Fold this sequence. Notes:
Shape: globular
Number of strands: 0
Radius of gyration: 22 Å
Structural class: mainly alpha
Order of helices and strands: HHHHHHHHHHHHHHHHH
Strand content: under 5%
Distance between the termini: 47 Å
Amino acid sequence: MRPVAAVAFAGGAVAAGFAARRLAQPARPTAAAPTPVDAPDTAAAEATGPEIAAAEATGEQQPRLAGAHGHLPALEGLRGLAAIGIITTHVAFVTRMSYGTPVRRLYGRLDMLVAVFFAKTGFLLWRAHSDHARRDRPGTARAVIPYLRARLVRIMPAYAVLVAVAMVLLPQNRVNGPVVWLRNLTLTQIYQRKFLVSGLTHAWSLAVEMAYYLALPALWTGMKNLRGDRARWRLPAVGAFGLSGLLFPLIPWQRLRLLPRGVNDQILPPAFSAWFASGMLLAELATARPGLLARLSRAPYARWGWWAAGAGALFATTSPRWFSEGFHHPSGREYAARNGLTAAMAFFFLGPIVLAPAGSRFRVLESAPLQAIGRWSYGIFLWHLIVLHYAFPLTRTSLWTRRMGVIWPVTVAGSIAVGAASYRFIEEPARKFLSPHA
């Protein structure tokens, strides 16, 4: 990517942070009684443009946004689509269909939908704290120990089973000793050189996510005084946090001998702060007074504009003029530009869901099949590489053969089946046993 593009991304991120601050000013105090945190807001789903404009002119209570609180089924469906997209990239890679034509290059970049996973995590984990701050409440919204316990219970049981199965079942892993087992079980493998293990190569993203689980309490504690009237500074602060992830790959860590030789700085957690920050920014916007971005999400058809912008950002990463094809180690500038585009992609994909008026419906994303796939998506993601490994002998296909049309449906169907079983027999029992009162 050209230097001017990297500078443009950095400047754009800063400008976006300050612009967003203006779009989400806290509501002015009025004589009306405040709406309780958990009170239903049925009027928000029925409000029309003139009604909202009148409310703004008189200073009345603004309609709540869909993402301000509660469960959002459409996000579950979006997560399910992202999981299928990631499978598609891995199938395209091993069938040599991830480069050469525009469609194949798109197959090769659907793994960037991991950014949707990270942004959704950032949104859900940050929302309570942004709401807490805008209600001018002291301290933090969540205690650290119960929060960490909930994250570990959600992630580790199924992942530990995956590690054991991959190490024992796949013949190429039987040479791995206890140190490799320990690194993978503790999600510290990305901090070593030559960490790739068959069936577990995708777990780098879990290692990054776990690092952010540990880091977020420090971030929300550091921002706990940005509340009430000072809450307007939260958006620039989160924007700066995201910008750090675009600057991180530009630093020559190896050349400066700031990292051990052979450690891949492009999969270290600081390189992905823009992806998490895109969701955190949406959490701030969803819990603030509705501004311009919320107004751009009111009409049902407006969501297609958001999604088109997100798709455009994803398609831009497939351009061979700017970005290398396939699984090549990119330069720092190229990597920063790609991460900036995919952070924007995640923002635009999630934005119309969380900033829409409360009660908005998304028929396809809320459909029963996508809700099921979204519910099972963690297991689908965990197990799909092992399913892919066995899809080749099952279909009597040699590795690297261009038979994506055969391997893809078998891998997707098998991953959904195994993901459903993982949810039913590992994830849910572990949650009920380890967090019975959650």
